[in-house]
Amino acid sequence: METIVTAVELQTNPEGYLVNYKEWTQEWAREVASTYQLELTSKHWQVLEWLRAKHAEGVALTIRKVGASGITDIKEFYQLFPGGPLKISSKIAGIPKPVSCI
Amino acid sequence: MTETMDMPQVEMKKPVALEKKPVKKMLIICSKGKLEDVYAALVLANGACMEGIESKLFFTFFGLEAITKKHAEHLHTATVGNPAFMPGMPTMLGGLPGFEAFASYMMKKEMDKLEIPHVTEFIEMIEAAGGEIFACKLAADMFHLKKEDFLPQVKDIITVGDMYALAEGEGTQIIYI
Predict the structure, then answer these.
(1) pLDDT of A9 above 90
(2) Left (φ > 0), alpha (ψ -120 to 50) or beta: where does B127 sit?
(3) Which range of residues forms the domain containing residue A83?
(4) Which end of chain A has fewer CB atoms at under 10 Å, N or C?
(5) In whole angstroms, what is the distance from residue A60 CA to residue A82 CA?
(6) Is there a domain that residue A101 lies in?
(7) pLDDT digit string, tens, across residues B148-169
């Protein structure tokens, strides 16, 4: 186990995903987002909260589902988290790495 | 001894540790119009977008069927000449009227269960993700297809030279299906 070097030290897996999503804090999320040069806007937070809620329900997340969430569409999702939206947003949201191929 | 001294010195290069170089761009060429081949191209292109890899799709020959307004939603899987399709089943059965349509219907049903989007939705997703879709000029001419015959996400009808230009830059991979 490793930890992402942030002010708030939480246990993550070697890829930087939080081990226990319940430990997640907004401060931690901001720190992880900054490693992607992301400043979290209210839209980002809405997406992150939605991802966390769905994860808590046991839903396997896909980009398509995010696109149908009513919070954002696929195009905007890619703009919010450039360079791999589902992976990056999942990491910031403190939920496990997505395993979807779609 | 002096002779060897005059020999040009060959510098021995030390092996350099292989540096990991990420894939930066994928150019996927889809030349086939069978359901499974088209999906392979779509999954690869969309998957690249999901990983933050630039993604270009080039459809040619029968692959063009996948991006026409008329046929994109009506692709079939081959039940003849496809030995991996229901192994053990005699090829002639696959040729019975309606068999291919039925098999394609069943396959699409299975894909729905896995929430795999239909072809047109998949293409919309790829475009929304920043992927670009092109049609081959030569094949379009051959099949008498014009820009208006293609789905609106098809950016342009281009030549093979234009296609190679899409692949320029370090870290590009080309896949031919």
Answers:
(1) no
(2) alpha
(3) 2-93
(4) N
(5) 21
(6) no
(7) 999 999 999 999 999 999 999 9
